[in-house]
Amino acid sequence: MVNGVKNLNNEAQASRVPPRWRNEVERVLITEAQLARRIQALARDIERDFRGRETVVVALLNGTLMFMADLLRRLNLPLRLDFMGVASYGAGTRPGRLVFTKELRLDVRGRDVLLVDDILDTGKTLAGVLPRLRALKPRRLKTCVLLNKSARRSEKVEADYVGFEIPDLFVVGYGLDYAERYRNLPFVGVLHPHIYQPPAEQKRVV
Ligand code: IMP
Ligand code: MG
Fold first, then answer.
1. Closest Cα to atom 11, ligand 1: which residue?
2. How far apart are CA 45 and CA 11, in angstroms?
3. What is the dihedral of CA 200, 166, 68, 57, to 10 degrees?
4. Which tens digit of pLDDT belongs to each residue from 95-141?
5. Dist. CA 24–CA 38, nearest whole Å
6. 52 C-alpha vs ligand 1 centroid, how far in Å?
7. Which residues are catalytic?
8. Which one of 14, 27, 65, 206 has the fewest CB atoms closer than 10 angstroms to its CB?
């Protein structure tokens, strides 16, 4: 399978975390080269399915920033781009209540829409966003995520295009954050648990 992380392990393991990030990032899960190759293949799949009509790409802020920049320049299709702002206010690495921070501005009625997010985890984000988009009556609505962490799914939602299936690990980099940090790493890495799990004695102090 092209998108199985199992196939990626050798290459990712051989790629060391840059010294600057070693205290915070445990290991590289997906390298820059692996991201580039897979995104090229995703773009081919999307082009094949969306050919013939202008597409509206709707990206969710903020985690999609790098993925969008790379996917868009590979998409050889007429398209318009818009963003929706969605934040999930949870504690640490747990998802919480969905808050819409930016509404769509383009009219998607009757259009072919590709909704893009960084990672599909519990599914709460897509389960919250999809009904809002469907209510705007697009002709077609497909979803694309860079990463799929299916082990944690609690909502009945799947993506049509998936970059990589990943295990149940908290990952950062390539747009993905922990507390708004690490978005600038050019690879996807596994965050060191000590970053989000404070020592037991500190935990009791609220
Ligand atoms: P869901 O709503 O639980 O499916 O999660 C989707 C959102 O949670 C993503 O858009 C991310 O912002 C965040 N998220 C889930 N897992 C991770 C992770 O491993 N690293 C960084 N952000 C994550
Ligand atoms: Mg996000």
1. 119
2. 24
3. -110
4. 778 999 999 999 999 999 999 999 999 999 999 999 999 999 999 99
5. 26
6. 33
7. 121
8. 206
